[in-house]
Design brief:
By secondary structure, the protein is an alpha/beta fold. The protein has three domains: 125 residues, Fumarate Reductase Iron-sulfur Protein, Chain B, domain 2 (Orthogonal Bundle), CATH 1.10.1060.10; 163 residues, FAD/NAD(P)-binding domain; 156 residues, FAD/NAD(P)-binding domain (3-Layer(bba) Sandwich), CATH 3.50.50.
């Protein structure tokens, strides 16, 4: 292990953020860099537990104690080898993953957990700076061709694995650039897009073919796809937003969160948006409906655009600040999360139901009602509106961030006649194959809305299944 007494001598220290007064003026990365010595000190806190529950928390099964030990011993190249063996996008997850592993860290039982995510990010960033990462083309090609539709985290992770297995991989993306939700869903202040471009350039040199502005089923027929490729895998995400169908929903100034975040990312990248289509929070009273990560991203983006004020509404009650009996270690606890965006200002309101949007043609107010939650006779938690608790909020701009229903059904899904599960996502068998022969699916499109790290993990399992289907066996590493 790194240092048997490291956790007794060194306290947890995260990377930290730039000052709020500075960072809300731009869209640059908010996280600060750490020195190699600081990372080594943090790695020394890893206890190399007999049963490292961080593996339980990490969907990818990263070699966490082993990489921490190697970092502490200044063996950065060896640590890199272990990290990329399980995670092809460590430079992304090191920035946007909620670090499920840290909530399962044994040290976290009676102390603060190891900074696992920061340590992994420091490994991959040092590797790029020192030139440890170079294109690695497969030693042999199998002669099999694979089409991947969608270039989000699942599509990219799948492409990487299948290319490593020696297959010819082509990734189709309907947007103008590769990355999916990583490029157009996550704000630049959390994930600057040159990080994606750096990784995509590497994969291109390794032989992966990327085709942008190509919508399969429209620009590229489904029949042609099935004819030209041995296998097709759909990784189109879970993009059908959940709406709030209440009076006044037709008013102007009410948008889905992803429409807002996508546009802002395009504007930050220098793309021109028609003036009558621009969504801008400058000087406006903004209300964000939904308390998840996407809602927090809207909060941070509105701050940077110069909103007059920002209020975030959550229908659920305020979570506790620490674990309760219903959230025992090492499970991921539903405790209060305060993101960097929340630290920048705004107000959060809990147990609030949105009842009506009020205005003439433009939204001006939101009518709300407070809620209380009680357990019924069956022991189920039920929501009840509190009589006389109605109130109104002024709002010039409203963002709906209440999750996604399922994958989009129009286009390739409908044309292939794919079977759907009860939630409306793509139904697959244990081999990740859909109801259409030679057509597979993975990521959010198959399992529903989830985290980037889960999409990567699902893609790696799918890659193993596809490789086995094509070759009879597979040497790809899979959890």
């Amino acid at each position: 292990m790194a240092d048997p007494r490291g956790f007794l001598k060194i306290k947890r220290k995260e990377r930290g953020y730039r000052p709020v007064c500075e960072r809300i003026k731009d869209y640059s990365q908010i996280a600060l860099e750490r020195s190699s010595e600081q990372t080594k000190q943090q790695a020394s806190r890893c206890m190399d537990c007999g049963t490292p529950f961080c593996h339980y928390g990490c969907p990818l099964g990263n070699y966490i104690p082993e990489t921490n030990d190697l970092v502490y011993r200044n063996q950065w190249k060896e640590a890199l080898k272990l990290l990329v063996a399980t995670n092809p996008l460590a430079d992304v997850t090191g920035r946007v993953c909620p670090a499920l592993c840290e909530y399962a860290c044994v040290l976290g039982i009676n102390d603060e957990p190891v900074t696992i995510r920061d340590n992994e990010l420091d490994i991959i960033e040092r590797a790029f700076k020192e030139g440890y990462i170079n294109p690695c083309t497969p030693k042999r090609r199998t002669g099999k061709s694979i089409a991947i539709v969608g270039s989000g985290p699942a599509g990219l992770a799948l492409a990487d694995q299948l290319n490593c297995a020696g297959h010819k991989v082509t990734v189709f993306e309907r947007d103008d650039k590769i990355g999916g939700i990583l490029r157009y869903g996550i704000p630049d202040f959390k994930l600057e897009k040159h990080i994606l471009d750096r990784r995509i350039s590497l994969w291109e040199k390794e032989g992966i073919i990327f085709k942008t502005k190509v919508e399969v089923g429209k620009d590229y027929s489904v029949g042609r796809l099935l004819q030209e490729f041995d296998v097709t895998c759909l990784c189109c995400g879970c993009r059908k937003p959940r709406d709030i169908l209440i009076p006044g929903r037709q008013l102007k100034g009410i948008y889905f969160a992803m429409d807002y975040l996508t546009q802002v990312n395009r504007r930050v990248a220098g793309q021109q948006i028609k003036e009558n289509e621009i969504i801008d929070a400058r000087g406006k009273k903004v209300v964000v409906i939904g308390g998840g990560d996407t809602g927090a991203d809207c909060v941070g983006t509105a701050h940077r655009q110069g909103a007059q004020c920002v209020v975030q509404l959550e229908i659920m009650p305020k979570p506790p600040s620490c674990r309760t009996e219903s959230m025992p270690w090492p499970t991921y606890p539903m405790t209060l999360k305060v993101s960097s965006s929340h630290q920048e200002g705004g107000e959060r309101m809990w147990s609030v139901l949105t009842k009506e949007f009020i205005g003439d043609t433009q939204v001006r107010k939101i009518k709300c009602k407070r809620l209380e939650y009680k357990y019924n006779e069956e022991g189920c938690l039920v929501m009840e509106e509190i009589p006389g608790s109605e109130f109104e909020l002024e709002a010039d701009l409203v963002f709906i961030c209440v999750g996604f229903l399922h994958t989009e059904h129009e286009g390739i899904v409908k044309q292939l006649g794919l079977a759907l599960d009860q939630k409306g996502n793509i139904k697959t068998d244990e081999r990740y194959m859909t109801s259409c022969k030679n057509v597979f699916s993975c990521g959010d499109m198959r399992r529903g809305q989830s985290l980037v790290v889960w999409a990567i993990a699902d893609a790696r399992r799918c890659a193993y299944a596809i490789d086995t289907y094509l070759m009879g066996k597979s040497n790809l590493l899979v959890m």
